[in-house]
Amino acid sequence: MCIEVVFLGTSGSIPTPERSSPSLAVRRKGELFIFDCGEGVQRQLLRAGLGFPSRLRVFITHLHGDHVFGLPGLIHTLTLLNRREPLEVYGPQGISSFLSCIRETVGLKPCFELLVHEVGAGVVLDGPDYVIKATWVNHSVPTLAYALEEKPRPGRFYPEKARELGVPEGPLWKELQLGRPVRTPDGRLVRPEDVTGPPRRGLKVVFSGDTGFSEALVELARGADLLIHECSFSDDEADKAALRTHSTPSIAAEVALRAGVKKLVLTHISARYKDPTCLLEQARARFPNVVIAEDLMRIVLKHED
C-alpha cells in the first residue's frame, strides 16, 4: 500500500505553456483527493491517467481565482459523465457562496449530490484509517494548508506467537493483523498486542496553499514524509514575497527544516521563472532534499517497513 502524489498544475497565478493552474492529486487505496482546483483540472486528471473515480473529494485552500476557477468546470464535466456518487468539497468560508453563484449564473445543475463543507483549523475529515487536518496560514485572504495523515498501523505480525497461543492460521490471523482481538477455538482471548509489535507510523503529506512564513504550517508539517510548499518568488525578490504574503525558496526550506520533513517540493512557480534552477539552488542551500514540481510529475510514498 502506498500514497501516490500527482502534480496536476504547478504554475503561479498565470499559467504557462509548461505549467497549468495550481492543483494537486493524492491517490490512496482507490480514493482520490484533489487539493486546489485550477482551470482545466479535469483535463489534467485525464492526462495523468487518474480519471474521475467514485471516491473523490476536493479541498480548496483559498478563494483566489487561480486556485478555484477549475471547480465549476470539474463539476460540469462530472455532470456530463452522468456521475451518481456524491462529490464532497471542503474549503474556507465563502466556498458555498462561490458555488451557489456559479449555479445561479450559468445554470450548473449537477446530477449528483454536491456536499460543500466550510471548514477551519482542525480535523476536517476523519476517515477509517486516515485524517485530513487543516490550519490557517499567512496569506492576503483566509487560507488553509492541509495534511493527509495516515493513522498508526498495527504492528508487525508474528505468526509464531499466534501459533503458540493456539490461534489457527486463517481468518483469525487477519483479524489480529487488523488490530482486533479474537478468541481461539478453546475460548482463549488473544489481543493484537499479544502477537504483534508496536504500532507503526503511517505516511503524511502536507500541502501549503499560498502563504508566507507560517509557524502554524511548521506544526502541521511536523515529521511529514512530503511537504509541498508554494514558492512564488526567488530570494532576490523577498520584499515582493513579503508584500504579497507569498514565499521564497529560503522560506519553504526553513519550514521544511524546522518541521523535520523528509522531502520538500516547491510549487506555484511564477511565470517569470522560465528556468527555476535558481529557486532549487536557493532552497538546497538550507534544505538538501528538495525538488521543483513539474506538471504531471509523480511521487510515490511507501511505508519504510
Topology:
Blueprint: E1 2-9, E2 23-28, E3 31-37, H1 41-47, E4 56-59, H2 65-68, H3 70-80, E5 87-91, H4 95-106, E6 114-118, E7 122-126, E8 130-136, E9 144-150, H5 159-164, H6 171-177, E10 182-183, E11 189-190, H7 192-195, E12 204-207, H8 215-220, E13 226-230, H9 238-243, H10 249-259, E14 264-267, H11 277-284, E15 290-292, E16 298-302
Parallel strand pairs: 3-4, 4-5, 5-6, 12-13, 13-14, 14-15
Antiparallel strand pairs: 1-2, 1-16, 2-3, 7-8, 8-9, 9-12, 10-11
Helix pairs in contact: 10-11
Describe the protein in words.
The structure is a single chain. With 305 residues, the protein is of the alpha/beta class. It has two domains: 255 residues, Ribonuclease Z/Hydroxyacylglutathione hydrolase-like (Metallo-beta-lactamase, Chain A, 4-Layer Sandwich); 37 residues, no CATH class. Helix content is 27%, strand content 26%. It contains eleven helices and 16 strands. The chain has a seven-stranded mixed sheet. Strands 7-8-9-12-13-14-15 form a seven-stranded mixed sheet. Strand 7 and strand 8 form a beta hairpin. Helix 10 packs parallel to helix 11. The longest helix has 12 residues. The mean pLDDT is 96.
